[in-house]
Amino acid sequence: MELGIPQSFSRVLSSMCTEPHPAAREAAERFIATNPGDPGTYDTVADLESTVVDRLGEVAGLDEPAGYVASGGTEANVQALRLARNRADTPDPNVVVPASGHFSFTKAANVLGVELRVAPLDGYTVSLEAVEELLDADTVAVVGVAGSTEYGRVDPIPALADLTADAPGDPLLHVDAAWGGFVLPFTDYAWGFADAAVDTLTIDPHKMGQAVVPAGGLLAREESLLAELAVDTPYLESTSQITLTGTRSGAGVASAVAALDALWPDGYREQYETSQANAEWLAAELRLRGDEVVSPTLPLVAADIGTEAIDAVRDAGWRLSRTERGEARFVMQPHVTRETLCAFLTDLDRLR
Ligand SMILES: *Cc1c(COP(=O)(O)O)cnc(C)c1O
Predict the structure, then answer these.
(1) Which residue's CA lies nearest to atom 5 of ligand 1?
(2) One matching Pfam family, short form (predicted)?
(3) What does pLDDT average to over the chain?
């Protein structure tokens, strides 16, 4: 069968993934037949996985990180809530999540049998008063979003940490930096382990990190937290497993090492600066055209260009998604260059 050619990234404007770094692609190919799910047998890739965790710890401000390379942000979020639930002692657990939380938390609550308490926003970030009202003795985790999927906004993580510390049920604080984790180190935001009492954190190398899919990351402040996830593995060379998946690709792991080697920190910093400048440029261009734009505080622009315009540019081949409110969503991934944006604006101006 003719497989065809995958889509090119030249007109992809809303994806959170991107063309992998060449070194990441090469590493993925080399390690494609390895299985870090069985570290006793596949020890080389298991060592690489520890390296990724150490490096992600550097990115997120944690000296001696525990963690692993997950299949993505979804698995990392599910696992963070799972460990919080397992650690707590309540038959009726709940988790407080901002309304801006990724839909993976809905999946997590569903598979874990945990009640999701959605805290409304105050503007684009979570309302601290709302969080405080929702906390009770059965709250096992509080979630903060560091780089929201729709608007790229960052919740007040240190204030959430304070609320979490004072909460009755001794909950954990989980930060979802799946997308934002590779740009936030170059901003003034307080988001990571060094900024607040964060317990667990999601950070995906396969988004702004330029690794291949599947490479997500779950980090924990202490190894003992991950022990809540351990199950016995009788017929493997290793004796227990903390991951949700069993057999899993070593391609993501090896590619994450290669990408981090090539880009942390200077390459990622340059990419952040370019992406942020592009976001601000696009926001200004759209405002000149009279469109309402949500200010891009991270490299993600949401703009109300109108439903008809979105349909027209999609028909012209642009891959563009919208927010729940209907704005067009432009994610400044590395493949979205100034030339891409100029070509997009030329089409937009022609078509509306
Ligand atoms: C993308 C994303 C996720 C989910 O990650 P996957 O890798 O798609 O499973 C979770 N949270 C945030 C904030 C994201 O941007």
Answers:
(1) 73
(2) Pyridoxal_deC
(3) 97
- Domains of the chain, earliest start first: 22-263 (3.40.640.10), 265-351 (3.90.1150.10)
How is residue 169 written in tokens? 């049920």
Is ligand 1 within 6 A of the CB of residue 149? yes
- Residues 194-233, buried b or exposed e (16+ Cβ, 10 A)? ebbebbbbbbbbbbbbbbbbbbbbbbbbeeebbebbeeee
229-270, pLDDT tens digit by residue? Answer: 999 988 887 789 999 999 999 999 999 999 999 999 999 999
Position 235 scores a pLDDT of 80
Q: Which two tokens stand for residue 326?
A: 């209907």
SS3 state of residue 265? coil
pTM of the model: 0.97
Sheet containing strand 216-220, edge to edge, reads: 66-70, 216-220, 200-202, 172-176, 139-145, 94-98, 115-119
Distance of CA 109 to the CA centre of its chain: 18
Q: Please give the full DSSP string across 166-188, using - where no structure is assigned.
A: H-TT--EEEEE-TTGGGTGGGSS
Span from the CA of 68 to the centroid of ligand 1 (angstroms):
16
Could you give the CA distance from residue 251 to residue 33 in angstroms, rounded to a whole number? 8
What's the DSSP call for residue 191? -
- Mean pLDDT for the stretch of residues 112-139: 98
Question: Residue of the nearest CA to atom 4 in ligand 1?
Answer: 73
Task: Give tens-digit pLDDT for 292-323.
Answer: 999 999 999 999 999 999 999 999 999 999 99
C-alpha 72 to ligand 1 mean position (Å): 7
Arithmetic mean of pLDDT, 21-33: 98
Q: How far apart are CA 259 and CA 250, in angstroms?
A: 14
- For residues 208 and 333, the answer to whether their CB atoms sit within 8 Å is yes
